[in-house]
Amino acid sequence: MRPIDDSPIVRDGKVLILAMDHGLEHGPVDFEPVPETIDPSTVFDVGTHDAVTAMAVQKGVAEAYYPSYEDDVNLLMKLNGTSNLWMGEPDSAVNCSVDYAVEECGADALGFTLYGGSNNEIEMAEEFRKAQEDARKHDVPMVMWSYPRGQGLKNDRDPETIAYAARQALELGADVAKVKYPGSPENMEWAVDAAGKVKVVMSGGSKTDDYAFLKQVEGCIAAGGKGLAVGRNVWQRENPREILDALEAVIYEGASAEEALDR
Amino acid sequence: MRPIDDSPIVRDGKVLILAMDHGLEHGPVDFEPVPETIDPSTVFDVGTHDAVTAMAVQKGVAEAYYPSYEDDVNLLMKLNGTSNLWMGEPDSAVNCSVDYAVEECGADALGFTLYGGSNNEIEMAEEFRKAQEDARKHDVPMVMWSYPRGQGLKNDRDPETIAYAARQALELGADVAKVKYPGSPENMEWAVDAAGKVKVVMSGGSKTDDYAFLKQVEGCIAAGGKGLAVGRNVWQRENPREILDALEAVIYEGASAEEALDR
Amino acid sequence: MRPIDDSPIVRDGKVLILAMDHGLEHGPVDFEPVPETIDPSTVFDVGTHDAVTAMAVQKGVAEAYYPSYEDDVNLLMKLNGTSNLWMGEPDSAVNCSVDYAVEECGADALGFTLYGGSNNEIEMAEEFRKAQEDARKHDVPMVMWSYPRGQGLKNDRDPETIAYAARQALELGADVAKVKYPGSPENMEWAVDAAGKVKVVMSGGSKTDDYAFLKQVEGCIAAGGKGLAVGRNVWQRENPREILDALEAVIYEGASAEEALDR
Amino acid sequence: MRPIDDSPIVRDGKVLILAMDHGLEHGPVDFEPVPETIDPSTVFDVGTHDAVTAMAVQKGVAEAYYPSYEDDVNLLMKLNGTSNLWMGEPDSAVNCSVDYAVEECGADALGFTLYGGSNNEIEMAEEFRKAQEDARKHDVPMVMWSYPRGQGLKNDRDPETIAYAARQALELGADVAKVKYPGSPENMEWAVDAAGKVKVVMSGGSKTDDYAFLKQVEGCIAAGGKGLAVGRNVWQRENPREILDALEAVIYEGASAEEALDR
Amino acid sequence: MRPIDDSPIVRDGKVLILAMDHGLEHGPVDFEPVPETIDPSTVFDVGTHDAVTAMAVQKGVAEAYYPSYEDDVNLLMKLNGTSNLWMGEPDSAVNCSVDYAVEECGADALGFTLYGGSNNEIEMAEEFRKAQEDARKHDVPMVMWSYPRGQGLKNDRDPETIAYAARQALELGADVAKVKYPGSPENMEWAVDAAGKVKVVMSGGSKTDDYAFLKQVEGCIAAGGKGLAVGRNVWQRENPREILDALEAVIYEGASAEEALDR
């Protein structure tokens, strides 16, 4: 972890990552609720909202669409990822080198998934090592998607597991840890404490109603969380800019979920 | 994906790849219907037809035969491939480096198979990463043979699977996605949408009669597909130039299957 | 092994490493006995005690916290490590390159775990080889956490096993061998003899009472051991500086456990 | 495949490779029929016969014996090979780098085994890729020992399998394909056709009587084969030069087996 | 194999390697018969005997002890080795690079174990390839510990197996082959013949009485063997210099076992 408050992906110490790698991770079925989202441009348009500090996409999407948005959107290149077509212990392919992401695609930040608890954890951690050290050479922040899963884990939402995931991000050298919301502000606080100086952001998860979602984000911020990395809970809504307005209030202005919805 | 409309393998925004790597993938049995096709020259001769924008072959065939055709044929070097002599989860050997393909063999484009859904998907995706980034250095288009298969898949012709395959090509950074035809123009349209700016072409598959074949291609084009990558459905015919004449009409001139056959 | 008596991590021929990689190896549960230890700063503060010759941490913790302590603490970068979330034969991910540890983080020494007896011993030994030879280029001491474990081992505290572990450190080229205390000064002496010129230090293990712990350390020193690498037995105490005062007496001044506690 | 008719291992478009890697592949038991053949010099002496265009040996034999024969024998360095002491899916260790073979040992040609159909085919093909491209840098011909075998194959002498093996050599970029004789000139012709411009030579196999052996070679040549790679059928005879005289007649002069024996 | 008669590890065409890597391969239990041998200095002292042409040790022992003996002892760095703590198919970790051994430690020769017949034979042979070619760059002799073992072998003392092991050393490019003594001079002669120009030395094995041991060495020399690589049969004796005096007579002066013992 290095100080990243001056980096483009941070606003007032907070982070809001709009993720759109679902086409790779889940397949095009994730675009069905709002069919036009199958066109990455529609999500990049959403990403121009001031609340969003970075868009997280895979290399191919960045190559094809980012050139039209580079003045309005910060690029977080997700370095690894895989489809859900295969079965087996969790693993993720490294789809982009750091040099290519930064030098050719103009990435402002990098993202890397670690499946702690998988039989492939060792291999993934070693791939992360190379990516992290390469990122340092370019002085670009590294966000870890820290998601314990695999045959060694019974419950990947267990508060201790989430706190462990946050700590892994600190110990291995990430600058931001993206973790599942562990169910309560108290549990989130454990994760935040475990991560030390690393910024912890919650992942948005599958789509829920506005209030429930914002209440979680409020709990995350109250617990010392630094923001959110979200996909479906934004772009699977009919009016994604509305929820971004509300998220902006909760994350950057300290509003409650109720206040944010009343605006 | 990068703009490739000005590349030699594109004609009026469309692509027609004549593939002849069957000697490696299927063995010499594929040449039995038209015995002289066992001689690669006969297929290269077919490849000089104006409808064909590139010939796809393995390295050894390019080394031995392409020097006689380099003025008349564009070379698409297939970078990986394997025999069907062995058994096991789908995989493909990387048989040619990008540098060798471009600098020594004069490749105008590159091809790479990804078996999404295979237990070897991770490894293949990482091999693709290197090939794709090397291709960018040479500014040469990359075509992905995106063929989900393996123990994780029940039905590799399922429309959602084909759309997923097309999306993988976009997310991972291909310029052209070669997918199986998913049975109807509506299904093909899903794949085309999922691939975004990436050009989707259908694979020719095993030999069918002229009308059925051209009708599929017509459906592909109507759905926004950008063409075809075909082998047996051309060179397993007694008169391959005739079917190429018809394909030319359907792909580049927007003719229907019936119109193309009536000419 | 090379002479390291003049290196910063040695004081009067002895070594006292304060280890804090438990957040990675065991998870945040290890911080529960003294909750503020979840903040690495509190442990770094402890590490400024004169008795401590080096702090052992993972790369991410070094990046985030060491800059504030570099005048007061010597850094021992632990190069490999993993979580206990997964199951399987003992193994450890290489999380930091030697170049990065020394050039970017300012490491004064390096640490590497070898699980002799694991089915992964071969792979770990080969990773150690590279790390050790890289360490030589930088003239930085290498400490081996030599911990036999795995399906091949019935009893990892067997005196012969501990002596074997110490010998592995010598044969493979470590400068300091960290081993489990084998239960008696006589057994420790075997390990010390087996390690030859390599300094053997005992690992602190899980928290015990002051007298029992200091008596072990006294036994270690009496047997020719050169010190201690300890974590929980220091920072899981309410007043870690008190036990460090006592350890200082036992390790550097030859005091008995009783004398050290009476001061 | 590149034109190799001007290379030292070709005489009048034909090739006769005298192989002696049996000490590695089969063990010293192969030398028992003619005990002095255990001394490589005796076989190198045979290799000075004009009919022989190259000797195929492993690196160590080349280092030790070739310096005495470099004026009289062309060296074909076999790059991979293994013992028959172990069990498992067919595989072969890469025992020599191309640079070492050419620059240090003076190799005029290179040889590489591919076990198509083995579960290790992918790995072997990728090792071949590197060797082949390195060979091109040195402009040295590459001979593939194309031997389908492994759990995927019921019958490695099946004519279709042999033709497939020959085609693999073409597709992957060999200059010469060494295959088992598929039982008849008609079958051999299929293999020759499948290999296209690549020269196909038959392997000598285990020792048979003069007439049967020469008849096979006659059939091979009649089918368009370009020669022979032979070991035991030459140096397991009491007078190996006699059979080489006969082979010279059959291969280079178009004699029948009967004519060759009558001379 | 290259000519090594002028190298420092050869005396009058013969070789006597004193090996002391037992602390790694077998553990400290091997030092119990003569407890002071746990200190490597005591064995290095033995190694100064004129009969010894090189000491074989692992990297760490060389780093720590060889600087005191470099004027009196020739260093043979054993490049691979492993503990007997784990179970599984025979394998050996590469613990030292050739560059480090030669440039940093001053090695006069190198040693490498190959377990022919192990499922890991392929991997070990490929590691040997790199080591051997690197050794050539430094013009340093390579000794192969050629020890067939693994699930493919019923009897690793079978004369044919030993002869095969000796041949592997020749084929793969070693300069000296260390093999088990195959039970009789006739059997040893087969191994010597199979190795061709490569010098074959017998391994000392576990401790036996003086006469039996010397008789074996006499048989080895009579069969054309070039010496011995010995550990326990020297330094597990109370007076190791006495047996070295006798070995000197048998190996370099052609004495019989009886003559050597009568001196």
Automatic annotation (TrEMBL), chains A, B, C, D, E:
One of its GO terms (molecular function) is fructose-bisphosphate aldolase activity. The active site is at Y147, K178. Its EC number is 4.1.2.13. Belongs to the DeoC/FbaB aldolase family. This is fructose-bisphosphate aldolase. It comes from Haloarchaeobius litoreus. The lineage of its organism: Archaea, Methanobacteriati, Methanobacteriota, Stenosarchaea group, Halobacteria.
